[in-house]
Amino acid sequence: MDIIIVGFGAIGKGVAKVLYEKREYLKKNFEEFRVVAITDSSGAAIDEDGLDLLKAIEVKEKTGKIKNYPEKGKEISSIDVIRNVDADVVVEVTPSNLETGEPAKTHILESFKNKKHVVTANKGPLALCYRELIEEAKKYNVIFRHEASVGGAMPIINLAKETLAGNEILSIRGILNGTTNYILTKMEKEGLDFETALKEAKELGIAETDPTQDIEGLDTAAKIVILANSIMGMNKTIKDVKVKGIKRITPEALFLANKRGYTIKLIGQIKDGYLIVEPMLVPIDSPLNVKGTLNVAMFETDLAKEVVVVGRGAGPIETASAILSDLIHIYQATKR
Ligand SMILES: NC(=O)C1=CN([C@@H]2O[C@H](COP(=O)(O)OP(=O)(O)OC[C@H]3O[C@@H](n4cnc5c(N)ncnc54)[C@H](OP(=O)(O)O)[C@@H]3O)[C@@H](O)[C@H]2O)C=CC1
Ligand SMILES: N[C@@H](CC=O)C(=O)O
Ligand code: NA
Fold this sequence. Notes:
Dihydrodipicolinate Reductase, domain 2, alpha/beta, binds NADPH dihydro-nicotinamide-adenine-dinucleotide phosphate, Rossmann fold, globular, seven-stranded mixed sheet, six-stranded mixed sheet
């Protein structure tokens, strides 16, 4: 299967690393998964026989630009790569823009038009124009998967759509942002100040390109919109969410909450048609009290009743895990 990676930051490089590390497993169980092009904001590296992924990562880390890939690197836009390079799937991992959805929206729609399946971790277009994307994918008869867009590695979208198929999801409540959960955990357990904890989150590659999206609760808001639309049949946008972030939470507030048997978590919830994101007191022994980059989601369903999932909500390799599973799904649906 031939893949184009659009965006070569923390997640794009994570996907390349995982495809390299899993190459024998993939070849043995499915077929060779070749990356035929990688783009970033500087240009692209293109090799229709498959790029050397370790070399691509090394070039990006040393020079900051994928166009410096020896012989196969050049200045070209992602759109031109999507249009002109032969491939089965586009992995779209540019920054999440929660105002316009661009450039990801155009990348995704252009992939569909060019008969390429899409896997994305990008929340922008999903939170702004979910229906349009689904309709366009249908129109061009291509597969569109986005497990990594909510909860990173934590199975949630495909779990609800496939494993819990037939159930009605009545409500969802959970922690859907790894960065803020990491910051709150560090403040609570180590008394770390907000800025130092945020700096660590950035170094781990878990924060958004613009980390105010994490801190102000907008990333969680985008994720609950994606859940509302993709697994609860709603038609919401980010403007429908009441949002409050964690900027005012201090180590002292966490200490006081702990003394009373509680912790403070940034909770996203969908209930009775309302979408809310806000820091909430959570009992210490609640299943919602997960630490670090872990995410958690509690579903209430009509048949299965309560279902709780926990998993790593952010991080390059963890997010690449969800992307890989979507790629394997596409292989199984189209090539087997
Ligand atoms: N980090 C995480 O743990 C998770 C992230 N996500 C989502 O995954 C996506 C990627 O995140 P992350 O890798 O952390 O972000 P980064 O900021 O690390 O990387 C973004 C990449 O996109 C590139 N880019 C920007 N504009 C374009 C363009 N027009 N064409 C091609 N490439 C472009 C940047 O190029 P350049 O390098 O030249 O600046 C960079 O390589 C985001 O949508 C994010 O919300 C989802 C789940 C978890
Ligand atoms: N910045 C996000 C990344 C995953 O979506 C987070 O911290 O959860
Ligand atoms: Na997920």
